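Tip: read the tokens left to right.
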């Protein structure tokens, strides 16, 4: 068997990289069909109420305006399981920012000016947008995001906590957070063949779900809809399901009989495409003096909208992490007059592990035990929640190796240089293994090349490249011989890019198709026919089999921070992560993903936050001038390492997802480092100068 340049584990450069940096890669609104028009939405300006009148005369009188759609005259939509897609269907205003009209014009500037000329009158209603733990409307849902039970209890955690020799009882808060991908949500839609066929270019993490949703909304069979999501400028979850922009673009195209482009203005994203809901955490831990946990209670309160229930599963990670014989993890939700929250990178794990890992650090401080050692002492032999054995779990190795690489022992004495304080912190990370059914097709051509087809989506993760590596490895051919085609509903169906499940799911189907093709080629004698040979695979049966193992990825984050006691500024000087995520298929793209996640966690810790305005019910931090994502000057040296983990209970490649693992635990490690540096614990994010100075007091830390 000859070695190939495509062997899995090789640091192969992204295949689409040159197209992106030269501008050849076309995104959703960079497709301009002949006669293309433009649309611009009109958001509601009240927190709750009803539209009583819409005056479109001034807008329609502007040059080049093709129409203004309103709830009075917009096309009627069919049923949908997502009420956020039922735009312009009635006069209600469930929250500020809900779209109440859509202007269409010959040019982008004309559509924007027409939208601003629309005059909307409202009848307002009392609104409630404030989340608090004692809200009278708080309830326990049946389940939370991901299908997890909202409440789980083992043993008698209250009694175990009361009897524990050592206890911590801490409250933590995570504010609303926003995805803000580089490419805002956008779509180009057109009806063709006498309006018999709909073609949509959409910025989406999954073309298949978009087609399914549009089929129901516009009463079309799916075969009469083509959705293309070939290049997507990021998503982080907010493009995981269809969003209102694509529905509006299709409605506009139907109304004016021309293709229409619609790109949402960035300031609309916080209220339109989902957000990470704020979470209020209470974590209580009971332990023996040696650090062994006896009780673990994690209670979460969060908000959802009145339109659609979405409950962040922030207490679920506590069911996985540590060996506590008595435990309770529970979620409560409050339905408010706010936009519907949704997925944001590592939903559940990101806020949940911030709270849990901060509480573990507080317990370590109380006991006088090294934080790394405390986590090691509470390593479970099986998944605490289910009792199932782990398919692989190398968290202890991540902690040990990370501590050695970071120089943990030598940095455990806080430093001071005049007004500058330094400290170090650690936190663990986890993320579940998700695998969903997918299909793929492999085709051998007479010229010796191979074509791989799968409706995967590359949102910047390098999916094209890794899938080509999987194919070349299974076919045992050079990588240069393999072409991958993705991002089109005309290709074999596949799961969306979400839940860090993409490569594991698509790669399984690609591997099986290529394995079948290899066997077919081995049986073939003589030259290939002109049309070549093909083989397909469908992993529905194998991917849906219930595994007897608990399958998770793990990691350990280490951070060093510097705190300026004069300005209150917190600077992260160093981040280091060590991860156990199965077989790393491409070190180059994997390191990029893990680094990106850690940088996003840095933003969560230090700068990123949003608020719900109690008077108007929306997010004042509606652009990148007010919502501060990290920039180059904020990001220190970021080191990414991994354990060489072999797990045969996953998929043919032995891989786990990595897209979300990097963010989990980063904020807690930074918060723990801040406490180590200053001796003061901040239990709410982010660690902004105003909060830091208030915590330090007028005299600074003692």
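Filled-in amino acids:
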């Amino acid at each position: 068997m000859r070695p190939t340049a495509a062997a899995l584990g090789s640091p192969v450069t992204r295949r689409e990289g040159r197209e992106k940096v030269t501008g050849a890669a076309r995104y959703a609104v960079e497709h301009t069909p002949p006669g293309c028009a433009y649309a611009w939405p009109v958001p509601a300006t009240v927190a709750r109420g009803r539209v009583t009148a819409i005056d479109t005369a001034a807008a329609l009188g502007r040059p080049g305006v093709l129409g203004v759609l309103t709830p009075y005259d917009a096309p009627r939509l069919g049923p949908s399981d997502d009420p956020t897609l039922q735009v312009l269907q009635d006069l209600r205003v469930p929250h500020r920012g809900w779209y109440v009209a859509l202007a269409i014009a010959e040019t982008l500037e004309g559509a924007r000016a027409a939208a601003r000329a629309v005059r909307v009158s409202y009848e307002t209603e009392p609104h409630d947008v404030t989340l608090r733990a004692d809200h009278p409307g708080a309830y326990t849902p049946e389940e939370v995001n991901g299908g997890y039970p909202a409440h789980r209890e083992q043993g008698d955690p209250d009694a175990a906590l009361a009897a524990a020799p050592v206890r911590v009882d801490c409250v933590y808060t995570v504010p609303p957070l926003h995805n803000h991908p580089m490419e805002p949500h956008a779509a180009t839609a057109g009806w063709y063949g006498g309006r018999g066929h709909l073609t949509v270019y959409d910025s989406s993490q999954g073309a298949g779900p978009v087609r399914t949703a549009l089929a129901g909304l516009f009463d079309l069979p799916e075969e009469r809809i083509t959705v293309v999501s070939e290049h997507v400028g990021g998503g982080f979850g907010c493009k995981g399901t269809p969003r209102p922009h694509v529905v509006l673009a299709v409605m506009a195209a139907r109304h004016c009989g021309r293709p229409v482009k619609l790109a949402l203005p960035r300031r609309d994203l916080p209220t339109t495409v989902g957000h990470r809901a704020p979470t209020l955490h209470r974590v209580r831990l009971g332990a023996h003096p040696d650090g062994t946990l006896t009780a673990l209670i994690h209670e979460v309160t969060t908000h959802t909208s009145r339109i659609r229930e979405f409950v962040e599963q922030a207490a679920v990670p506590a069911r996985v992490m540590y060996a506590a014989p008595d435990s309770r993890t529970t979620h409560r939700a409050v339905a408010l007059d706010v936009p519907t929250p949704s997925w944001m990178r590592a939903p559940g794990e990101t806020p949940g592990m911030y709270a849990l890992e901060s509480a573990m650090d507080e317990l370590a401080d109380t006991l006088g035990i090294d934080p790394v050692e405390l986590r090691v002492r509470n390593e479970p032999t099986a998944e605490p929640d289910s009792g199932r054995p782990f398919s692989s779990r190398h968290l202890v190795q991540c902690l040990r190796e990370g501590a050695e690489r970071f120089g943990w022992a030598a940095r455990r004495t806080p430093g001071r240089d005049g007004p500058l304080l330094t400290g170090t912190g650690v936190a663990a990370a986890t993320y579940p293994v998700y695998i969903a059914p997918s299909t793929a097709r492999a085709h051998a051509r007479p010229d010796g090349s191979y074509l791989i087809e799968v409706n995967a989506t590359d949102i910047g993760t390098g999916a094209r490249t890794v899938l080509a590596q999987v194919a070349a490895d299974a076919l045992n051919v050079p990588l240069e011989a393999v072409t991958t085609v993705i991002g089109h509903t005309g290709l074999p169906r596949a799961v969306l890019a979400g839940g860090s499940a993409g490569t594991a799911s698509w790669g399984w189907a690609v591997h099986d198709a290529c394995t079948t093709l290899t066997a077919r080629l081995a049986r073939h004698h003589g030259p290939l026919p002109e049309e070549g040979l093909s083989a397909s695979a469908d992993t529905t049966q194998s991917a849906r089999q219930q595994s007897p193992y608990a399958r998770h990825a793990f990691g350990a984050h280490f951070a060093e921070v510097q705190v300026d006691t004069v300005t209150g500024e917190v600077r992260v000087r160093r981040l280091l992560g060590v991860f156990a995520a199965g077989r790393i298929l491409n070190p180059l793209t994997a390191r990029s993903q893990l680094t990106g996640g850690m940088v996003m966690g840095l933003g969560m810790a230090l700068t990123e936050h949003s608020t719900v305005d109690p008077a108007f019910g929306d997010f004042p931090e509606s652009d990148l001038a007010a919502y501060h994502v990290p920039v180059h000057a904020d990001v220190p040296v970021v080191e990414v390492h991994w354990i060489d983990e072999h797990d045969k209970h996953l998929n043919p490649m032995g891989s786990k997802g990595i897209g979300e693992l990097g963010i989990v635990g980063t904020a807690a490690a930074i918060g723990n480092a801040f406490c180590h540096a200053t001796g003061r614990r901040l239990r709410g994010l982010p660690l902004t100068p105003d909060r830091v100075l208030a915590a330090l007091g007028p005299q600074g830390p003692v």
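Residues 392-418+425-433+551-610+626-677 form a domain with the Aldehyde Oxidoreductase; domain 4 fold (CATH 3.30.365.10). The radius of gyration is 26 Å.
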